[in-house]
Structure formats: C-alpha cells, structure tokens
Amino acid sequence: MMYRMRTKKSTYSNSHIQEEKKDESENTTENYADDTVNNHDQSGKEDNDNIVMNAEISLTTLSEQSPINDLTNLEIQDIEGIGPTTSKKLREAGIFSVMDLAVAGVEDLAVDINASKESAASFIMAAQKLLRDSDVLDKEFITADTALKKRRLLLRCSTGSSMLDDLFLGGIETQAVTELYGEFGSGKSQICHTMCITAGQPIESGGLNSGVIYIDTEGTFRPERLEQISSSRNIDPVNALQNVAVCKVYNSAHLELIVKNLGKYIDDYKAKLVVVDSIISLHRAEFSGRGTLADRQQRLNSIMHKLLRISEIYNIAIIVTNQVQSTPDTFFGDPTKPTGGNVIGHASTYRVYLRKSGENRVAKMIDSPYHPYSEVRFTVNEKGADNVDEGKKSKKE
Ligand SMILES: Nc1ncnc2c1ncn2[C@@H]1O[C@H](COP(=O)(O)OP(=O)(O)O)[C@@H](O)[C@H]1O
Ligand SMILES: [Mg+2]
Q1: Domains of the chain
Q2: Which residue has the higher pLDDT, 127 or 54?
Q3: Cα-atom radius of gyration of the chain, to the nearest Å?
C-alpha cells in the first residue's frame, strides 16, 4: 500500500499539526496557466449542490464526540505549488480539502480542472506530501515492524455475529474495502443493516463509535429494520438511527458524484463505516451493451480505487455488495462468480462469498492478503446477522 493512516485517535485531531507546521507555505507559484474552468466543472458543481444526503435525522449530535476525521484544518493553499488560482479551480471542481485532493484520481482531476495529467498528478502528490509531512499519512517507506504496529492499531467492526466476525479475525477492518457477494437473498443487505447498528457502538463493544454512511442503489434500505435490529439488541433505536446517513442513488452518474465527494460526507457525518449496497447494479443496468462494457469497467475501476484510497486515508471500513454472475436462465458460467469481472475483485481488499444453506447462511473468505481460507455459518433473524443457535441446528443442511 502506498500510504496508510495512523490509527491512534489522537491522530485525527490535527491541532498538533497546525502547531508544528513550519512557515513553509509561502510558495504559491502556479504550475500551469490560468485557464478558466470548463463547462463540465460548472455543471458538475451544480449537480453537486443539488445532492442532498437523505439523512432522516441530522448527525450533528455526534459532533460532541472526538473529532475522528477532523483533518480539515489543513488548507489547500498550504500545499506547495498551489496558489489562490489553482485552489479556486479545485474548489470549483468540488475539491475543498487536502484530503479530497490526496484521494483524487489523476485522470478525473485533469479533466475537472482542465489541466494536463502531469499537473494533476503533481497536485495530488503535493497534497499527499503535505499529509505525510504533517504525520497524517505514513512516510513512503516504513519498516515492516512499524507497518505491523500500525496494522495492530486498525479498528474492527462487528458484523453482529461473532461467528461471522471470526471469519474476519475479529470483525470487518478499517483501511480496507470488503466485498460481500452472493445471490439474491443471501444476506448481503442484512449484514449491512446490522453493521449500521454495530458501528455506532463503543469500540470496546465491537463498534467503531462512529456514524455510518449508507449508499443505497437498489432501494432496499429499510430504517424500520434498523429499529428492529437495535431494539432486539437492547440498543436505543433513536440514537442508533441518528448515526446513519442514507443516500438513495438513482443512476451511475449520481453514484460517481457521491463517491467523488465522499470525503466531505465522511467528515460531516463522522463516519467510520461506508456501505455501498450494491456497487454494480446501476452500472450494470445502464451499460449493458457490448460496446459499453469497456466504459463501464473503467468507471467501476475508478470508483473502486477511489474507495480503496479513501478507506486507507480516512481509516474507515468500506463494504461494497455485489451480485453473482448467473441468472436462473443461465446454464453456462460459474454461478458463484461475482459480477463486474476483475475490476471489483482487484480493488477489494477482502472478498467474501455468501450463500444460503437451509435456514442459515454460509460465508466464505475467497480472497484476502492474509486471512486463512475458511468458511463460517451465521443466520439472519430479528437481530440482523446473528450466530446460529447450535441448539436448533437446521436438519435441512
Ligand atoms: N426481519 C427479519 N427477520 C428475519 N429474517 C429476515 C428479516 N429481514 C430479512 N430477513 C432475511 O434476509 C433475507 C434477505 O436478505 P438480504 O440481505 O436482503 O439479501 P441480499 O443478499 O439480496 O441483499 C430474507 O430472505 C430473509 O430470509
Ligand atoms: Mg440486497
């Protein structure tokens, strides 16, 4: 990994950064000519303004808690080589913070600010350098023992079932994108709903003590299910639901825009868990012809890589759900293969396959840099994802 964020809570409060920062930000030289921002950017910004996070209840109550993602004190103009003109163009392109710039994709940024790829890359690298110099990001090279110490500090969020958590060696990790794939009804959305509740719990109780952002592309998010899950777990549903910001997404362009602006929403909602349920359905529906496949894959690739960078830089857990390849009328092909080809799989840190097994569900770790190959059973009940009651093991299995 190119960079990894420190996971100690104190890291997220960057007051120390401001104090330590030397007065070295005088260099405001522009790297490229003073172009006007093109129409694409303007329309993008208007779209952006029109987006309303469909949060049922505002998350402002969380702001009294520790400033988990508060890195915004670093200003774009503190970046070497970026002066007022460039920072204005970046703002017009929806990039408001150093973090936004650090996670931007080179090609997207070049188009958005009407600059060459070289300029775009140099701005992104300068933003990353500032974050490294400020100790927000790791240095480019760290020794393996330091890397191990940092990994030990990463957070894990319970899925709601300790048996399922075991598959992840203790819960779904931050600094990673976890892909849940499986057939219709296999429990993907149920795990996501359950984690909306568990993520709000204190870290000692397997939570992330944080808000959640739920990006719903299939219209299957149900707030009343969150109410049921929290009540069944003796968690106050009023507080629990306040922690969750939901955004219903209607088309692939909207999804791309939400992902592009995700850093801002993560800050706004103090989120340490982002769910994209599902990552592929909109692109799959809109880019269905053969001729559009390459375009679709490239767009998905860009979304997935952006999510991966965000998970690392913000130290958050990202869950994406994905369908399996085959439909009931398909005889050929592996029915357990996720859709989206290699694009989703290559960018996911962990891939987990879910399937029904009688009344229960089975989750299998398919792809992981370090988890042993294994599979576990869990169930879905009023508490959401839950352990199988061994006393009444299904005879059907
Ligand atoms: N309140 C509930 N109590 C028990 N089981 C439920 C409840 N809600 C959903 N389920 C189970 O979850 C299944 C749907 O799983 P879901 O996660 O939505 O599927 P998908 O993998 O397609 O997202 C239902 O078929 C049902 O078995
Ligand atoms: Mg679903």
Answers
A1: 9-133 (1.10.150.20), 154-392 (3.40.50.300)
A2: 127
A3: 21
